[in-house]
Amino acid sequence: MRFKWLILAVCLLALAALPAAAQDAGGNTVSFNGISFQFDSSLATNVNIRQFAGDPSDLEQPGGPEVAHTEFLLYNGMETPAGAFEGEGVGSLRFYNTADFSGYALPGEQLAALQSLLAERPDLSQYMVASEDMSVELPFMPVFPATQVLRGQVHYVDAAELSGIAYLTVFRQDVFPFVAGEFIYTFQGLSADGQVYISAVFPVTVASFPAEIAEDFDYDAFAEAFQEYLSESIDTLNATAPADITPDINAIDALVQSISLTAVGPAPQPPVDGGETTPPAATEVPSGSAGVLRGTWRLIAYGDPADPTPVIEGTEVTATFEASGVGGNAGCNTYGGSFQFEGASLTISGLVSTLRACEDQAVMDQEAAFLEALRNVTSYEVSDGTLRLSYPEGVLVFQAA
C-alpha cells in the first residue's frame, strides 16, 4: 500500500490570482476542477488541495480501502498538516464520484444509507438516542475504524446544488467521559443529480463538556451508568448554543451552503504502463531503517523497561505498520491510526478503535494501557525479530508475527 496524494495547491495566498469578483470582503472563494465554495477568513487561512487516486477495493487496512476523491484541507499556520485532526488542521471537504464506490463494501454501505435517508426523509430524532449495542449510526465518510457513539443537533441541509445531513458526533474506542475537544461536526450529502458524495469533517470544541477528565474519576461507577451518561450527553449536545462551539458551526454551514458543482471529473489515475497502474513514487515511505518496521508484530510485554509485564495469556495484541498507517488488535478491539518517523524517532497519532467492552476487566485494563502507550511512543528499535517501542513511562515489546 502506498500513498497516492498529489499536492496541487498550498495556501490561500495563491488565490490572489483569482478575479477580484470571486473574493468577498472578509471571505475566500476556492475553485478547482468544477468544484467551488466560499468560506469566511475567520475559519481558516490556508487551503491545500489533494487528489487521491483510490486504493484497491480489496485492500485490508483499518477503516478499509479509500475511494478515489478530491480533498480540500483547511488549516492555519505555515506548515501543511497531514490531515484535519493534525497540527493546525481546521477541517476538510471531500468530493467523491458516486460511481467510484462500486466494489467498496464499507463506503458502499455509507452511500446506500445516505441515499435512503435523503429519499425517505425520516424523523432524525431517532438517531439522537443512546444505543446499548451502538448499532444506531448515521452515514459518515471517510470510514473511521471506530464506533460512532452519539449524535447531536442532527438536521437536514438543502441547498440549490446539494442536500444532506449535518450533525455533531464522537468516534470512540473506550468507555470514558467525553471531553470538549473530541467532537466532530460533519455534513454528509449528495449533489442534486446524485453523482457526487460530499463529506465535510471539522473537529470542534464543545464548551458545554469538560476540558479534561476529573482526577477523582471512578471508572467502575461510570461504566455501570454509561448508557445513562450517553443520554445525558446527547441532551447536553442538543442544548449547546452555536456560540459555545469552536470553530463557528454557522461558518461551516455557510461554507457547505456555498458549494457549487459543475463538471466534477474523476480523481486522476496514476500513470499507466503496460496495463498496470503505478502510483506516484515520490510519496512512498522511505526504505532503509523504516523498512524493518513494516509488517505485523505481536505484543509480548509492556511497561517498565527493566521488568516489563507479560501480555495476558490467551490475548492477541498486534500492531501492523504499512505506508497507509498503523493498526491491529488491541485485545478485544481493533484500532488504527497514522505514524511518522525520522531515523529512530517515531510518533503515532490519530489513534481510534472500535468500542467493545472486554469481558475480562484485566484484559480491558491491558488494552487501555497498550493504546495509551501507543499514543505516547517516541522511538523504536528493531533487532533479531524484536520490535521495541519506547514511550516516557516504559516500553512495548513485540515479536514478528
Query: Order of SSEs, N→C?
Result: EEEEEEHEEEEHHEHEEEEEEEEEHEEE
What percent of residues adopt helix (DSSP H or I)? Answer: 10-25%
Strand content: 35-45%
Q: What count of structural domains?
A: 2
Structural class: alpha+beta
The helix count comes to: 5
What is the average of the pLDDT values? 84
Ranges where pLDDT stays below 50 over 5 or more residues in a row are 1-25, 270-290
The tally of beta strands, per DSSP, is 23
Quote the distance from N terminus to C terminus. Answer: 19 Å
* Radius of gyration, CA atoms, in whole angstroms: 22 Å
What summary fits the major beta sheet? 9 strands, antiparallel
Dominant shape: globular
Q: Can you walk through the features of this model?
A:
By secondary structure, the chain is α+β, with helices and mostly antiparallel strands. It folds into two domains: 5-261, no CATH class; 285-400, Lipocalin, CATH 2.40.128. Helix content is 15%, strand content 37%. The chain has five helices and 23 strands. Strands 1, 4, 5, 6, 7, 8, 9, 10 and 11 form a nine-stranded antiparallel sheet that branches. The chain is globular, with a radius of gyration of 22 Å. The relative contact order is 0.13. Residues 1-25 and 270-290 have low confidence and may be disordered.
Secondary structure layout plus pairing:
Elements: E1 5-9, E2 27-32, E3 35-40, E4 46-52, E5 69-75, E6 89-97, H1 105-120, E7 147-158, E8 162-172, E9 183-191, E10 196-206, H2 219-224, H3 226-239, E11 245-246, H4 249-257, E12 260-261, E13 272-273, E14 276-277, E15 295-303, E16 309-310, E17 318-322, E18 325-329, E19 334-342, E20 345-353, H5 361-375, E21 379-383, E22 386-391, E23 394-400
Antiparallel strand pairs: 1-4, 2-3, 3-12, 4-5, 5-6, 6-10, 7-8, 8-9, 9-10, 10-11, 13-14, 15-16, 15-17, 15-23, 17-18, 18-19, 19-20, 21-22, 22-23
